[in-house]
Design goal:
The protein is an all-alpha fold and about 375 residues long. Helix content is about 70%, strand content about 0%. Helix 13 packs across helix 14. It is elongated, with a radius of gyration of 26 Å.
Length: about 375
C-alpha cells in the first residue's frame, strides 16, 4: 500500500495569532481546540480534528519555549533557535505584556508580593480571567517594576528600552509602576467607579508635573537652574531622582498654600473674585458661592498634607470626598466643575498678598486635570 505525503521544509517559525491569544488567555490545549473548532477552522482548512489537535499542541509548545525569551524581550531578536520576523516579534512581545483592565484594576496600587499573588485565585474568580493569565499578568507587572524601579531618567523611555513595548502600553506600565511605588489607595468603595484608564491618566499627570524627574526635565529644557536641579546634580547617583518619586521639595512648598484658607481676608477676597467671575455663567452659582470656603479648604488641605506618605496614599480618596462628592450632591455638571476650577485657579493670581504663584499653578494644574477625569458616574 502506497502513501503520498507532502512535506514542506522552512526555517521561519509558524505562529498563529489566534492560537497565541488562546495560549495567553490561559486556555488548555483541549479548550483551545474546542474554540478553534467552534470558529470553523476545520471547514476553512479542510482538516481533521486530529490534525487540529496536533497543530494546537505544537504551537502551544512553541509558545512555551519562547516564553523565557519574552521575559527579556531584547533577547528575542538575538536568539537563533526561532526564526521570527521583526514584525512578528513585536506582536509576540506586545501581546505577551498586554493586560486585562479588570485584572489590573484589582491589583493596582498593591504590593507586588507573595501575599498579593496568593489572592490571584479570588481575583480570577471575580474577574472571570483564567488563573494562568492572571499569573502571567501579575508576573509581568512585577518584572517590569523590578527592572525599572532603580533606573534614573524617563520612566516610559526606560520601559520601552528594556521591554520594547509600544508607547501606549509603556505609558500604562509606567502608571502601574508609579502606583506600586507610591502605594496609592485604589480599592476603597468610593473609588470603585474609577477605571484603570482614569487612574493611568492621573498617574501621567503626576509623573509629568510632580516628580523629581519632571522638575529636572523642565529645567533642562528651559535652561533655568534652580535648587531642585542643583540638588539633582549633587546627588546624581541617588535612586530617588526618577519619575516615580514625588518631588519632596515641591511637597514641602505646598504648605505655603495654606495662607489661602488661614488668612480670612485673603479667603474672602479669593471667594469674591471667583464668584464675580462665575455670576451668570452657571445654574449652580448659588451652590458654588455657598460651598466655596469648604471646597477651597478641602483642596488646600490636600496640598498641605501631601508631605506625609499616608496622605499621599489617600490622595484619590481625598479628591473624591472633599471635592467630587460635594459637587455631585449639588448636581454640578462636568462643565460646571471645569468652570469653577478654572476661575478658582486663575483668581489666585490677582491676590496681591499671595506670593506662591508657581507652586499654586503646578499644584492646581494637576488637581484640575485629575478631578475632571474622575468626575463621572
Amino acid at each position: 500500500m502506497s502513501v503520498e505525503l507532502d512535506v514542506f521544509v522552512g526555517n521561519t517559525t509558524i505562529m498563529d495569532e489566534e492560537v497565541y491569544q488562546l495560549w495567553l488567555d490561559g486556555y488548555t490545549v483541549n479548550e483551545a481546540v474546542r474554540v478553534r473548532m467552534e470558529g470553523g477552522v476545520l471547514e476553512e482548512w479542510e482538516a481533521s480534528a486530529e490534525v487540529l489537535q496536533s497543530d494546537t499542541m505544537d504551537q502551544f509548545r512553541t509558545f512555551q519555549m519562547c516564553e523565557r525569551l519574552l521575559h527579556s524581550p531584547a533577547k528575542l531578536a538575538n536568539q537563533l533557535l526561532f526564526q521570527i520576523p521583526p514584525h512578528r516579534q513585536a506582536m509576540l512581545i506586545e501581546r505577551y505584556y498586554a493586560f486585562d483592565s479588570a485584572f489590573v484594576r484589582e491589583v493596582l496600587g498593591k504590593k507586588l508580593s507573595k501575599g498579593t499573588k496568593k489572592d490571584l485565585d479570588d481575583i480570577s474568580t471575580k474577574t472571570a480571567i483564567a488563573l494562568k493569565s492572571c499569573r502571567r499578568q501579575f508576573d509581568n507587572f512585577k518584572r517590569v517594576f523590578k527592572v525599572v524601579e532603580e533606573l534614573k531618567g524617563c520612566l516610559v523611555e526606560n520601559i520601552q528600552q528594556h521591554f520594547l513595548l509600544s508607547d501606549r502600553l509603556a505609558r500604562d506600565y509606567a502608571a502601574i509602576v508609579f502606583f506600586v511605588n507610591n502605594r496609592f489607595e485604589t480599592g476603597k468603595r468610593k473609588l470603585q467607579y474609577l477605571s484603570f484608564q482614569d487612574f493611568a491618566f492621573c498617574a501621567c499627570q503626576l509623573i509629568n508635573y510632580w516628580t523629581v524627574g519632571a522638575v529636572g526635565e523642565r529645567e533642562r529644557e528651559t535652561g533655568v537652574v534652580t535648587r531642585s536641579l542643583r540638588r539633582q546634580r549633587d546627588f546624581d547617583n541617588m535612586v530617588e531622582d526618577m519619575d516615580v518619586d514625588l518631588d519632596k521639595e515641591f511637597l514641602q512648598d505646598l504648605k505655603d498654600l495654606k495662607i489661602l484658607i488661614t488668612d480670612k481676608d485673603m479667603l474672602d477676597q479669593h471667594k469674591s473674585l471667583v464668584c464675580t467671575a462665575l455670576r451668570g455663567k452657571t445654574k449652580v452659582f448659588n451652590e458654588m458661592e455657598t460651598n466655596f470656603k469648604n471646597l477651597s479648604r478641602g483642596l488646600v488641605n490636600i496640598a498641605a498634607k501631601l508631605l506625609n506618605a499616608k496622605d499621599v496614599r489617600d490622595f484619590f480618596i481625598d479628591l473624591v470626598e472633599k471635592f467630587i462628592e460635594p459637587c455631585r450632591s449639588d448636581k454640578w455638571t462636568a462643565a460646571d466643575v471645569k468652570l469653577f476650577l478654572t476661575h478658582y485657579t486663575n483668581s489666585a493670581h490677582i491676590l496681591d498678598a499671595f506670593k506662591h504663584q508657581a507652586v499654586w499653578d503646578r499644584y492646581m494644574g494637576v488637581i484640575k486635570s485629575c478631578i475632571l477625569k474622575m468626575y463621572h458616574d
